[in-house]
Amino acid sequence: MTLAVSVMGLSIAAAMLALILVSLRRREPVVPESDMTEALQDRLWQIAESEERYRVLVEATTEAVVQRDGQGRITFASAGFAALLGMKPLELIGSTLSPQVIERGASEQRADGVRVVEERLVPVDGLPRWFSFIEMPVSGSVDGPNWLRAGQDVTARVEAARVLDEAKSRAEAANVAKSRFLATVSHELRTPLNGILGMADLLLDTRLDPEQRTYVEAFRTSGKALLGLVDGILDFSRIEAGRLDLAAEPFDVAALVEGVVELLAPRAQDKGLEIALDIADDLAALRVGDADRVRQILVNLAGNAIKFTQTGGVGVSLARSGEGQGEGLVLTVEDTGPGIPEERIPILFEEFEQGDDSASHEGTGLGLAITRRLVERMNGTIEARSTVGRGSTFRVMLPLPAAEGAMSPETPSLAPRKVLIVAASPYQAPFLARRLSRSGAAAVVVNSAEAALDALSGVAFDALIADRSLGDAAVRRL
């Protein structure tokens, strides 16, 4: 009886287990084998398609790609890299082959571990080519990190750069040779020219009739003009060759500028031009720098202004810029000449360029180029502004510090004095009026003796300044 109950219990347990299994099978239906095979094939196709897209992308963006494991064995190679060795990508897997490197160029190691290097390789075709490779670490194995190397053929760029460097070197060598030649020739020309000019001066001190004196003065003037051209060429060659040394000595800049204006005044008067000078009151006269080169800059700028101006005048202004250690000079030259077309201003300071294309002006076109080089050599700046038909303004800023112990002159105040300025030309009078106004005086400008008499009849002036060009009779009336 007991055995029968036990058997019956086992049968019931087996039946319950079978029921549970059937229930589970109903909840998770079995996938047919054919469906599983199809899903696996779809997945493999997707992987193959992704790999093909990756390979196409690699081949399109880089010419040579190779990945190596920690032992240097190739785990991936693009068709471009394999072509360098005359093989197929699959033939390289597991090998340590590399193209022959015959030259290495520039390289760069970045902080993130990426390295950029240029190498000249010899492919299987035997024609050396330059490649620029980017190397970077990728996920590794027990043997160490894998390295991915991707390169582009940069042969054309490298060769073009080398050709450019060679051309630049040849041009620099030719330029140095040219500068030496110009310096030598200029020096050799100066010696006989100085002899000619010296003899002309001696000849003018002898008894000459008017016709002979005219001839001697003509060849002396021509000789001085030629000497000026030679000096310009010599200066330019020295600057180009880097052999121009600048002095750093104290000099009186106000006296220097006044001397240049006095030197150029006869030239301006010969053309019927006025030349005016305005020096700021707060300017420390003693400056540290190269006085000869500052004089040359001013002579070039003011001389050009006189040369190109036919009516009106030329004005020279000297002021200071900045404060303390940054204090310097501002030198301005303005004229009432024909002006310079706007499109020519950017090339105005280039060699052999002038304000216009006319052949009517003498000179080599080196004056402004030399001026720019001198200003830059002094760490200064130069700029030009011009209006066609109204004139031009050149502004030079030079960082020439005041000499130790130099003090700005104390200008006495003229307030509240009234000054009448009588000048037939409208150019010098405004310069003088500004100068008097800074000193506190009230300046009134008129352009004729009659206007001056009218002004004097209505106002009591403390001083009167009259231009001698009005004539002695008109000045006496005042």
UniProtKB/TrEMBL annotation:
EC number: 2.7.13.3
Broad enzyme group: transferase
Location of 4-aspartylphosphate modifications: D467
Organism field: Methylorubrum extorquens DSM 13060
GO BP term (any one): regulation of DNA-templated transcription
Domain Histidine kinase as annotated: residue spans: 184-402
Classification via InterPro entries: CheY-like_superfamily, HATPase_C_sf, HATPase_dom, His_kinase_dom, HisK_dim/P_dom, HisK_dim/P_sf, PAS, PAS-like_dom_sf
The protein's name in its UniProt record: Sensory/regulatory protein RpfC
